[in-house]
Amino acid sequence: MTVLALETSCDETAVAILRDRELLASEVASQIALHEKFGGVVPEVASRNHLRHAPGLLERAIRDAKIDIKNVDAFAATSGPGLASSLMIGASIAKGLAVGFSKPYLAINHLEGHLLSPFFRSDKIDIEPNVSLVVSGGHTLLVEVLALNKYRVLGRTVDDAAGEAFDKVAKLLGLGYPGGPEIERLAQNGDRKRFDLPRSMLDSENFSFSGLKTAVRYLLPKIAVISTDARDDKLLADLCASFQQAVIDVLVRKTIAAAKKRNVDLVTLSGGVSCNEELRKQMRERCALEKIEFKVAEPWLCTDNAAMIAFAASLRLQSGFVSNVRDEIDPNLALA
Ligand code: KG4
Ligand code: ZN
Questions:
Q1: SS3 4
Q2: Using an 8 Å Cβ cutoff, are 171 and 216 in contact?
Q3: Which residues pair with 27 in a beta bridge?
């Protein structure tokens, strides 16, 4: 079974080809540099660049995979959530190919792509019940996964997503975009106990990160961390480490509590923020302590890519799900 998938929900144009469990090609063209100067993703610029990049990526993916496009069994694309004008590009291409080659079309929820990604390399293909934490630039979701297509959202952010908090704090500190990798790099040499930052909504399964961001903002004048001439690198590292630890504490604590409450013995972690080595390590350690199995995707699969969309599509196809090419993209597509 060969599936070709496109992912264009935000600012990454991606194409992947998956044959059974073997990834034949995975191409990602990032637009980060283009949007950086605007301080965020500009939808119009994103969609024009998806259109510019997609044909070349498709050609390259087919060449890398050494297949004939006629032998692709199904075409898939992310159909939401995301930016409407971006989603439209990938979905239109996949629908066009499906119609042109008379093959099935699969519309995939971007969040389902993330939350299934920890199973990408698993020998066992059936999805065991698990509590799944999806942490990206746009989402912070705690989900009870009962089976493929059976998801119950337990909690979500009431303000900023976890990745958004990393990005906004990085901006406050004068660091580059995306902020997560920058903060992680600086935090490596920092003292995570130096600053006492808030851990919000600990008694809820929802999340809130805007208070943490504001707490960092109020600290800045006191410690003059961004006055570039006299920038105190130790102070900056300590602040990054303290901020990162505050986010990790909340994510780990709520995920473990949710897993224990539902009596599941598997926790999965996905989304761009799960590239963070400290988060992976601390979640793994807490799971081991609680005798809960832990699965996280390899870092390249954590940020947006089309391999996770192809994987979700192939699992759906095997279970008999197909979509209608008349189904429209939905920028607010719900997971459950
Ligand atoms: O999943 P993703 O590529 O895109 C969305 O669907 O949003 O996630 C991007 C987010 C950004 O906010 C970025 O700062 C964050 O993931 N991120 C990280 C790290 N690498 C990426 N956050 C913390 N630590 C990292 N190492
Ligand atoms: Zn994503």
A1: strand
A2: no
A3: 15
Ligand 1: nearest atom to the Cα of 302: 1
Please report, rounded to a whole number, the percentage of residues in the chain having pLDDT higher than 70: 97
Contact residues for 300 (Cβ-Cβ < 8 A; gap 6+)? none
Mutational test site, ligand 1, from 111, 133, 186, 275, max ligand atoms within 8 Å of CB? 275
DSSP states along 64-76: HHT--GGG--EEE
The per-residue pLDDT for range 283-301, each reduced to its tens digit, is 999 999 999 999 999 999 9
Among 159, 242, 168, 241, residue whose Cα is nearest residue 198: 242
Global pTM value = 0.95
What is the per-residue DSSP string for 209-251? -HHHHHHHHHHHHHHTTT-GGG--HHHHHHHHHHHHHHHHHHH
Q: In this structure, are strands 150-156 and 140-147 parallel, antiparallel, or unpaired?
A: antiparallel
Tell me how many helices (H) and strands (E) the chain has.
Answer: 11, 10
Is the peptide bond prior to 81 cis by the omega test (within 30 degrees of 0)? yes
Query: In this structure, are residues 323 and 91 in contact, taking their beta carbons and an 8 Å threshold?
Result: no
